[in-house]
Amino acid sequence: MTTALLVIDVQNDFCRGGALEVPDGDAVVPRINAMLADYPVRAFTQDWHPERHSSFASEHPGHQPLEVIEMGYGPQVLWPDHCVQGTHGAAFHPDLRTDPADLILRKGFRREIDSYSAFFENDHATPTGLEGYLRTRGVTSVVCAGLATDFCVRWSALDAARLGFEVAVALDACRGLDADGSLAAALDAMRQAGVALQT
Length: 199
Description:
- The chain is α/β, with parallel strands linked by helices.
- It is built from four helices and eight strands; from the N terminus they run βαββββαβαβαβ.
- The protein has helices at residues 28-35, 130-136, 149-162, 182-192; strands at residues 2-8, 41-47, 68-71, 74-77, 103-107, 139-147, 166-175, 196-198.
- The strands form two sheets. The chain has a six-stranded parallel β-sheet. A two-stranded antiparallel ribbon has the order 3-4.
- α4 (182-192) links the parallel β7 (166-175) and β8.
- It starts with a strand and ends with a strand.
């Protein structure tokens, strides 16, 4: 069995002082750094939005961040402008060890659709290419870590399970936004999908 570590969106905008700060988000960095040597395959994801991305609340007059609206592909949370391509906010946390990454996958780069999952856009149909990469590397199981537990980690874990990978989430290497109970809902959804929640 070959296991991959998926390091999800440990970027400046999700850490202290960022545009979409996840509480205590910086705390995942040393834990993830310590995990890297334990896995033969390490894939990092990076939110990588163009300016004026359709998921930004600023593109929807009269709406505020964290409101949910219906898009052509389903419900979409509106976010503050964040992780804009080429900006400091989109860069990885400066203390995160990125040299061990075998793959850095950028997602959310299509202006008209968001991408929480490392595997699919938010239409749950358009692939990012990560599944094919992992299959060709002989990966059969994945461990997810990063930000945020209740959004990009959740959907990455659920999609990995749906695709037939054995999946675990290292909760001590994740932090959540917990918007209106989203963290509890995420943990419940992952448990029901057979995802192992490691503490």
